[in-house]
Amino acid sequence: MKGSAPYAGGVRRLAMATAAMVVLLGAGVALETALVGQAERGAETAPALTTPTSGTPTGGAPAGEPTATVTTGLDPAVAPRIVVDHLEFGAARKAETAAYAKRHYGTATWRLTPTLIVLHYTESDTYASARSLFESDVPNRGELPGACSHYVIDKDGTIHELVPPTVMCRHTVGLNHLAIGIEFVQSSSGHDPRWAVQQVLRRRAQVAAGVALVEALQRRFSISDESVIGHAMANDAKGFRDLEGWRNDHLDWQRPEVVQFRSMLTMSP
Ligand SMILES: [Zn+2]
């Protein structure tokens, strides 16, 4: 993703009650439930596109009420901690996704069996703004469903699952039928895209979380290191396909930084 999210300095974010399950994944066992208040993470500011969901939980269930047990399907013995904060992805969005898949890939399905992982950065400064954009389901390149990504990793290393990795989500032209999308919260702030990714790579907690998440997904879906790519590499990726001739024009995560990221992966199948 590479949306426009101007940095609105100085505006302290309003508290947003976000009910979210914090689980240590797998086996249907929710080990910890937490109310994650967006404001707790403090002095970050809200980009202009953020729509505070005051009073409206974004996690699917009313704040304070127990949600159904949610798991990510990852091995609980080795999976990183993931905050499940799913987008509203009901029948309408699934139908939009299946229609998109039919037009672009020739298969009318919203289901995903991932064979690739594509790395992105949000081009926004907060998790909340990225989530808000993905939740909005507004046309992208004139088509629905709106853009989204399966995971968003905050600067402090918190991993959020917005869409299960078995559901197709629009993050990379030509590869959505194959790929899980992972976003790192980072704005380029007027610098070039490589600079932005280098900021992520220097942020120890965030990159460690990314490595742990990617390794867990590699184990679950038998995805090789070479199949962990950057958005900027997508047009040349194995399996790239778009029946309407679309190509990516995004430059997030170019090869040198992806090679650096891959070098940290140790659990590849
Ligand atoms: Zn991207």
TrEMBL record:
GO terms for molecular function: N-acetylmuramoyl-L-alanine amidase activity. CDD domains: PGRP (cd06583). Keywords: Cell wall biogenesis/degradation, Hydrolase. Pfam families: Amidase_2 (PF01510). One of its GO terms (biological process) is peptidoglycan catabolic process. Residues 45-56 have a biased composition (Low complexity). InterPro entries: Amidase/PGRP_sf (IPR036505), Amidase_domain (IPR002502), NAMLAA_amidase_2 (IPR051206). It catalyses: Hydrolyzes the link between N-acetylmuramoyl residues and L-amino acid residues in certain cell-wall glycopeptides. Its EC number is 3.5.1.28. This is N-acetylmuramoyl-L-alanine amidase.
